[in-house]
């Protein structure tokens, strides 16, 4: 994150005092021996960034759905908007990591591609929570595929990246999956006991209200 901000700030510092024609943003020739990430690993990381961005957009759609006046579930909306911010932060962390490793010299404009969310409506809170759990499970599988790609070749095992993804990302994914599974279970139990009010009460609990 800091590296991304620093890179933008450095570019602005160079370009603002002079005209656009005088601003040279072409890369300079620097030895490439320090750039050691293998192609399969690099490609997997770039695809993972797309996965995180896609999850963020899907959560935005979920938050917007539950914010509609005809549905009006502010607790669910907050839950999913917060999740969207978290997924976007994951994508930024991965971009920051690639910057640190010198892997964003080319094809930067194709790094983030915006695709429409898979779904735009949900029948209920349970439906949304179960969809979120399924999506997080797929994200976790995708992260594990990156790890496999980065440790598949014994000669070029990227120990640092594998350790980073295992410690920084996988633990958070597993905790998040457990949290979503628990929320879905609790909501279903509340609906069994209070079929007409269960989702309403659960939504208030998501806002931190003691009901």
TrEMBL record:
List the CDD domains.
Euk_Ferritin
Keywords from the UniProt entry: Disulfide bond, Golgi apparatus, Iron, Iron storage, Metal-binding, Oxidoreductase, Secreted, Signal
Annotated signal sequence is: 1-20
**What Pfam families does this protein's entry cite?**
Ferritin (PF00210)
**Chain positions recorded as Fe cation binding sites:** 52, 87, 90, 136, 173
Q: Show the GO MF annotations.
A: ferric iron binding; ferrous iron binding; ferroxidase activity
- Indicate where this protein resides in the cell: Golgi apparatus; Secreted
Residue ranges annotated for the Ferritin-like diiron domain, each copy included: 35-191
Q: Which GO terms describe its cellular component?
A: extracellular region; Golgi apparatus
EC annotation from Swiss-Prot or TrEMBL: 1.16.3.1
Do you know which SUPFAM superfamilies this protein is assigned to? Ferritin-like
| Main location (coarse class) | Golgi
Reaction(s) the record says it catalyses: 4 Fe(2+) + O2 + 4 H(+) = 4 Fe(3+) + 2 H2O
What the entry lists under PROSITE patterns is as follows:
FERRITIN_LIKE
Q: Which GO terms describe its biological process?
A: intracellular iron ion homeostasis; iron ion transport
Assembly and interactions?
Oligomer of 12 light (L) chains and 12 heavy (H) chains; L and H chains are disulfide-linked. The functional molecule forms a roughly spherical shell with a diameter of 12 nm and contains a central cavity into which the insoluble ferric iron core is deposited.
What does the similarity note say? Answer: Belongs to the ferritin family.
What's the stated role of this polypeptide?
Stores iron in a soluble, non-toxic, readily available form. Important for iron homeostasis. Iron is taken up in the ferrous form and deposited as ferric hydroxides after oxidation. Ferritin is composed of a heavy (H) chain which is responsible for the oxidation and uptake of ferrous iron, and a light (L) chain which facilitates the nucleation of the ferrihydrite iron core.
Q: What is this protein called?
A: Ferritin
Q: Give the originating organism.
A: Papilio machaon
């Amino acid at each position: 994150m800091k590296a991304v901000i620093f890179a933008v700030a450095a570019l602005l510092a160079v370009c603002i005092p002079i005209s656009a024609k005088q601003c040279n943003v072409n890369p300079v020739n620097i030895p490439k021996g320090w750039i050691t990430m293998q192609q399969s690993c690099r490609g997997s990381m770039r695809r993972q960034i797309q996965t995180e961005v896609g999850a963020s957009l899907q959560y935005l759609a979920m938050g917007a759905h539950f914010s509609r006046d005809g549905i009006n579930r502010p607790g669910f909306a907050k839950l999913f908007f917060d999740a969207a911010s978290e997924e976007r932060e994951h994508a930024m962390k991965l971009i920051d990591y690639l910057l640190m490793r010198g892997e964003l010299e080319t094809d930067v404009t194709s790094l983030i591609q915006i695709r429409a969310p898979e779904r735009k409506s949900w029948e209920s809170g349970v439906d949304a929570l179960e969809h979120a759990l399924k999506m997080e499970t797929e994200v976790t599988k995708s992260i594990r595929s990156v790890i496999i790609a980065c440790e598949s070749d014994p000669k070029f095992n990227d120990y640092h990246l594998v350790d980073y993804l295992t410690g920084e990302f996988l633990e958070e994914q597993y905790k998040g999956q457990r949290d979503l599974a628990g929320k879905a279970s609790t909501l279903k139990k509340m609906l069994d006991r209070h079929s007409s009010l269960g989702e309403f009460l659960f939504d208030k609990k998501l806002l931190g209200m003691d009901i």
